[in-house]
Write a structure and sequence with these properties.
This protein has about 425 residues and is of the alpha/beta class. It has a domain at about 5-70 and about 190-260 and about 355-410: FAD/NAD(P)-binding domain (3-Layer(bba) Sandwich), CATH 3.50.50.60. The protein is about 35% helix and about 20% strand. The strands form 3 sheets. Strands 1, 2, 8, 9, 10, 11, 17 and 18 form an 8-stranded mixed sheet that branches. Strands 5-6-4-13-14-15-12-16 form an 8-stranded mixed sheet, with helices on both faces. It has a two-stranded antiparallel ribbon with strand order 3-7. A hairpin with a 4-residue loop joins strand 10 and strand 11 (about 235-240). Bound molecules: flavin-adenine dinucleotide. The site of flavin-adenine dinucleotide has 42 residues, from helix 3, strand 12, strand 16 and helix 12.
Length: about 425
């Protein structure tokens, strides 16, 4: 089943072809049934297959047709809206307390290197560039935030560096910002190509991936789990990983009500003239600044600027974004001017109220996580790998993830409808100066 918005993306137009898959018919058995063929599900399948376990992935659409094939492809080893020290301090004792919070922070600190190492190990063809991720500060006060972030991540051994105004201009090619910081282990990749490559490698190692196969129920059958599909197929497995993230629906009661699927719009310009391309991001592969109304940019290998943004009101989005984001590009990169955009698409980011990732054991042997909060390329890759370890017998307490019971958000249905209005609040906050 083809989602037209997914098929409108630049990534869809430029990714190597997907491995051949088909819908599940009949019944298959597995060690682990995985629902969702994004980074989480496929990284999990790859690690399981490498360890000799039978992994079966069920995907309702195509490989990568959730967030994994639609995102900006920035490989970012940080959180978006929670500071590492705050996360450590606020990890509840029943989830492992400060020690477990620290393990999660370390996982994130190492997550970009983990992802690029995986890509290199398997020779994945996905335009991966590990040339650093930069976060410029959009007000003078946010430079202090950058200082705090550098101090916090440096304590965890991350390859971070504080940059003054001229340093930021040197790496971004823009005088728009006031300073900022950089993590040299970050970078960018072609997100759909990466997802398809995860699938290709996992399948080459023995994992089975079924597309057009929507899972409709997870139930107990004897000592195993039975994951049934809409078309009458089923996987019988010892364990289940629900890797549906912001695209969670009613498959597991309550899971979708723990996370807000917030629309993020992505756009790719026409290929820019070579001299203009060379002036953009000369010292980093990817850039997302300190604004809540996030300004983010990266180049594609053929010199398109891939950017985007959010909207409070979604109507007529493509026309409005061409103007709004076009003017933003011209403000940040005057040499580009207001560009023509060849591609506009969108996808759902999994946002949690406390800005933390939430990992769950939904029932004995059934795992899930949600809450990338816009930083999931590297984090989902790591989460999938650690879920594979759990499926292979590592006790959950030994994973670097705080596990918590499902906590459905009160008023979630209304919150989901008005989630895009949070952007108006973010824009207001962006105009206020930061007070440490
Ligand atoms: C527009 C956008 C831009 C982003 N930019 C960045 C970025 O630059 N950097 C970054 O780090 N993060 C970014 N993110 C976040 C990142 O893309 C996600 O965190 C990550 O892709 C999540 O991967 P996942 O495998 O957990 O979920 P997904 O990739 O969303 O996969 C979930 C899959 O489950 C499938 N599914 C759902 N229900 C069922 C069912 N019942 N049966 C079968 N299949 C089902 C869906 O079809 C989907 O394919 C962005 C996200 C979006 C949407």
């Amino acid at each position: 089943m083809n989602d037209p918005v997914f098929a409108q993306s630049f990534w869809y137009a430029s990714a190597p072809v997907a491995p051949v898959t088909q819908a599940l018919e009949g019944e298959v058995t597995a060690d682990v049934a995985i629902v969702g063929a994004g980074y989480t599900g496929l990284s999990c399948a790859l690690y399981l297959a490498e360890a000799g376990a039978r992994a079966v992935v069920l995907e309702s659409g195509e490989i990568g047709s959730g967030a994994s094939g639609r995102n900006n492809g920035q490989v970012i080893p940080t959180f978006s809206r929670i500071e590492p020290d705050a996360l450590v301090a606020s990890t509840p004792a029943e989830q492992g307390g400060r020690a477990k919070g620290e393990e999660l922070v370390q996982l994130v600190a190492d997550s970009a290197t983990f992802t690029f190492d995986l890509i290199r190990k398997h020779g994945m063809d996905c335009d991966a560039v590990q040339r650093g991720w930069v976060q410029p500060a959009h007000t003078p006060g946010r430079v202090q935030l950058a200082e705090q972030r550098v101090a916090a991540w440096a304590r965890r051994g991350a390859a971070v560096e504080l940059l003054d105004r001229s340093g930021i201009e040197r790496v971004t090619g823009s005088r728009f910002w006031h300073g900022g910081w950089m993590n040299r282990s970050g970078g960018c990749l072609q997100p759909l190509a990466y997802c398809r490559e995860l699938a290709r490698v996992a399948m080459a190692k023995g994992a089975l991936v079924f597309t057009g196969s929507r899972a409709t129920s997870v139930s107990r059958q004897g000592t195993r789990w039975r994951v049934s599909t809409a078309a009458g197929g089923a996987v019988l497995a010892e364990r289940v990983v629900i890797a549906t993230h912001a695209y969670s629906n009613g498959l597991w009661p309550g899971l979708a009500r723990t996370v807000f699927p917030v629309n993020s719009y992505q756009m790719a310009t026409v290929p820019l003239p070579e001299d203009v391309q060379r002036s953009l991001l000369p010292g980093a592969a990817a850039c997302s600044d300190t604004q809540g109304d996030l300004h983010f940019f990266r180049l594609s290998p053929e010199g398109r600027l891939v950017t985007g943004g959010g909207l409070v009101f979604q109507a007529d989005y493509a026309r409005r974004l061409r103007r709004r984001i076009g003017e933003r590009v011209a403000r940040v990169f005057p040499r580009v001017g207001i560009p023509d955009f060849d591609f506009v698409w969108h996808g759902a980011v999994g946002v949690t109220l406390d800005s933390r990732p939430h990992a769950h054991e939904l029932a004995p042997g059934v795992l899930a996580w949600v809450g990338c909060n816009g930083r999931g390329v590297a984090l989902a890759t790591c989460a999938g790998a650690h879920f594979a370890r759990a499926c292979l017998g590592t006790p959950l307490a030994q994973l670097p993830l705080p596990f918590s019971p499902l906590a459905q958000v009160v008023g979630h249905a209304i919150g989901k409808r008005i989630a895009s209005f949070a952007l108006a609040l973010f824009r207001w906050r962006d105009k206020q100066e930061y007070r440490p």
